[in-house]
Predict the structure.
Amino acid sequence: MPHQEFISESYHTGSQIFLSLYVYNVGFQTCDSYHEWGPGIRNHYLIHYINAGKGYYKTNGQTFLLTKGDAFLIYPETEVTYYADEKDPWEYYWVGFQGNDAAALIHATDFSKENPIFYHCSSGEKIRDGIFEIYRSRGNTIADTAKMTGSLYHVLSLFIQDSATKQTLSAASSYIELAVSFIDSQYSYPITIEDIADYLGISRSHLFREFKTYLKQSPKDFLTNRRIREACRLLLKTSLSIQSVANSVGYENSMYFSRIFRKETGLTPSQFRLQSAVKEKIQKI
C-alpha cells in the first residue's frame, strides 16, 4: 500500500465496455501546499477519499473542510474547486466512474448534491484499499476492466454500508436521475419510452407523470431533444452523411429523422448544415 513515498499516480481507462458501471479514472496523490483543481466541472462521478492531511472542497456556494477519514463526491456537470491546506496538505485516493447504475448506487449512500461530503467513514481504510485495488487492477483487457468494475462496486458498497439514511429508490427524483442517465448512455440506440420505463421498473404512465412534475416535459420530448442536440453537433462538427447522423442518434430511418429534425429546428438536416457553414465563413471574414 503506497503512502508518502508516492507523490502522484493516476490511470485513465478510456474504456466503456460495460454500460451499467465502469471506471473512468483512478489514482492517488500527495499534494503540495495549496495544490488546487478548479473551478471546473467533470462529466462523470468522482469520489476522493482523504488518507492524510486536510484540504477544502467548494461547490454550490459552500466550502467544506475535510481531514483524514473523510470523503467528497463530485457530481457530473457541477462546478467545483478543491485545494490542499497550506500547512498540512492532504493525500487522497480517487476514483471516477460512469454508467447506468451510478446514479442509483450514489443515491443509496449519504452523498447528496446538497451535502456531497461523507465525514468520518467507518470503512475508511477499506475504501482506501479498495480504490488502490482498482488502480492495481488497471489494464486494457476485458478481464482488467471487469476486475476494476468489480472493485468499484465493492468500494461503493462500503459507502452504502456506512450510510446513516440507507436511502432507497422510492424518491421520485431518483427515477428522473436514473432515466436521464439511461437516456444519456442509450440515446444512440433505437430505445423507446417503454424501454426506459422497463429499466426503472415502473409503468409508462408513472414515468410520464414524474417527467412532467420534475422536468416539465414528457419523456418522449426529453429523449427527442437529447437526440436532436447530438444530431446538431454531428452535423456541425463532422462530415457524416445524413443517414449516418440519423443512425448515430437512434433513428434507423433517415426520412423520419429528417422530419423530426425539421419539426424541432425549423430546418432540414442539410439546410442546418449549410446554414451553419455559411455563418462560420461569414464570422471568419
